[in-house]
Design a protein that fits this description.
Blueprint: H1 18-31, E1 40-41, H2 43-50, H3 54-67, E2 71-72, E3 79-80, H4 86-107, H5 113-131, H6 135-150, H7 156-169, H8 173-176, H9 185-199, H10 202-227
Antiparallel strand pairs: 1-3, 2-3
């Protein structure tokens, strides 16, 4: 039986970097919360969903396992979306605050007026998705909003580390929505980030990003505790 999230994948043509493309597709799906904590991923299901052979699927899954994004089972080489516990989540939130705060500070002076317009548009779309209760779209737009800022830091290695952190909590987005969207706090946090961005104040942007991380961390903590 194919995992539900894999059914939405579209097959793509073969290229020399097929394994990399499979890996990136899976990374994005995990980060966007399309998989559930503890969900099992099989080579055959991944290969079938993308129309590739077992080789690039194996390469992608085992590379993600080597990164710590996925976990290897104790038997039969099974691969799972990892579960978090309170200790791991606490560490992860501290790392996110440090890394994303740094990215926000470095990015702010580099953001041009057109960049700010694009980030504002993403947030408008996010608000609309929230109002329509289109939570999968909202999750994807939230990723785009944050990483449009972080990528402006001009520090791709830093951005990749932040992505790794998001990958470790992505599956729990399935758990915290729709309850997480019942208040306007997340929207207000984004408005605060945008205000600081428009003012060109690196420390204010970092502080607003930190507040947003801490707020989402509370919901993630509740979700992790409920799963244990």
């Amino acid at each position: 039986m194919m995992v539900q999230a894999l059914e939405s994948f579209a097959p793509f043509e073969r290229t020399e970097t097929l394994g990399v493309r499979v890996r990136e597709q899976l990374r994005h799906a995990i980060m966007a919360g399309l998989f559930k904590p503890g969900e099992k991923l099989t080579l055959r299901a991944v290969a079938a969903s993308l129309g590739v052979s077992l080789t690039p699927a194996r390469e992608a899954l085992f590379n993600l396992a080597a990164e710590g994004v996925l976990e290897l089972g104790e038997t039969n080489g099974s691969i799972y979306v990892p579960r978090l516990d309170e200790e791991k989540l606490r560490e992860l939130m501290k790392v996110r605050v440090s890394l994303e705060g740094l990215a926000a500070r470095e990015a702010t002076p580099n953001l041009k007026p057109k960049d700010i317009i694009e980030i504002s548009a993403l947030n408008d779309q996010l608000i609309e998705a929230n109002q329509k209760k289109e939570y999968k779209l909202l999750i994807d737009l939230n990723w785009s909003f944050h990483f449009s800022i972080y990528k402006a830091s001009g520090m791709p290695f830093l951005v990749r580390m932040i992505e790794s952190c998001w990958l470790r909590t992505g599956s729990y987005l399935n758990v915290i929505y729709p309850d997480f969207a019942k208040t306007d706090t997340g929207i207000l946090n984004h408005i605060a980030i945008l205000r600081a961005v428009r003012e060109g104040n690196p420390e204010a942007v970092a502080a607003a990003v930190t507040h947003d991380i801490e707020f989402s961390g509370q919901a993630l903590h509740a979700a992790v505790c409920a799963q244990q």
